[in-house]
Specification:
This protein is of the alpha/beta class. It has one domain: 2-enoyl-CoA Hydratase, Chain A, domain 1. It is 46% helix and 16% strand. It is built from 12 helices and 9 strands. The radius of gyration is 17 Å and the shape is globular. The relative contact order is 0.14.
């Protein structure tokens, strides 16, 4: 299988490591998300693969969409992006995400496709959509409250607050805390190997039961997210949110 982004797949016994690299910040793009969906779909068809570790290289896990780049216009009509992102919820094999650095916006959405997240204190996780002037996306209106509860999800959405890795574990947003960034991936692999030691058909059937209806719920809510985002991408508040992020200052929103 050929990928347009640098995606490497390696195997250690029954665990597959899917590593992506879109330097310097691993920004989410249609091409990257498509390649990841293709990679995970291919591993679903591999009987030797019983669990997957999703990881990235560089300082960030995934810093979200790059609204300041010339290619960002594709994210401002995110239909194609989300059509590929929704494929990530159709996977059959358990996934452990190794979140060693920033997971922001769509990057956090990507981390939330996994069954488990391993992180470190130095990581930063944020659902920063409202701070950019837009509605949350990536189906996070379902996936975030599913993990942390409605109240905590509302606070994280409304404020765009950045959580450290240990705060994320305390909230239930992540599941294990490694000593530092260098130890995140080995710990994620250890979790995946433990899963792979169980009967694969039983694990996959149990996963299917536990996640019953999740993919459909995410797709349905994502249609609402998509419609609202389309309207908000043309607002002055969105332009201000992007400018403030680029200039590292507090945004001044006007409600229009």
């Amino acid at each position: 299988m050929t990928f347009s982004h640098e995606i490497r797949i390696s195997h250690d016994a029954h665990v597959a490591l899917v590593e992506f690299a879109a330097p310097p910040h691993n920004f989410a793009s249609i091409a990257l998300i498509t390649d990841l969906a293709d990679a995970l779909s291919g591993l679903d068809a591999d009987p030797d693969c019983r669990a997957v570790v999703l990881a990235s290289s560089g300082s960030s896990f995934c810093a979200g969409a790059d609204f300041n780049a010339g290619g960002a216009t594709q994210e401002r009509d995110p239909s194609a992006f989300y059509s590929q992102a929704m494929r990530l919820f159709d996977t059959a094999k358990p996934i452990v995400a190794a979140v060693h650095g920033a997971a922001i916006g769509a990057g956090l959405g990507l981390a939330l496709i996994a069954d488990f997240r391993v992180t470190c204190k130095q990581a930063r996780l944020s659902a920063n959509f409202n701070r950019l002037g837009i509605h949350p996306g990536f189906g996070m209106s379902v996936t975030l409250p599913r993990l942390v509860g409605a109240q905590q999800a509302a606070r994280l959405f409304y404020t765009g607050r950045r959580l450290s890795g240990d705060e994320a574990v305390a909230l239930g947003l992540a599941d294990a805390l490694a000593e530092d960034g260098a130890h995140v991936r080995p710990l994620a692999q250890a979790w995946a190997k433990e899963i792979a030691g169980s009967a694969p058909l039983a694990v996959q059937a149990t996963r299917q039961t536990l996640r019953a209806g999740l993919a459909q719920s995410v797709r349905e809510v994502n249609q609402r997210e998509l419609a609202i985002q389309r309207d908000q991408f043309v607002t002055q508040d969105f332009r201000e949110g992007v400018a403030a992020m680029a200039e590292r200052r507090e945004p001044v929103f006007i409600g229009a």
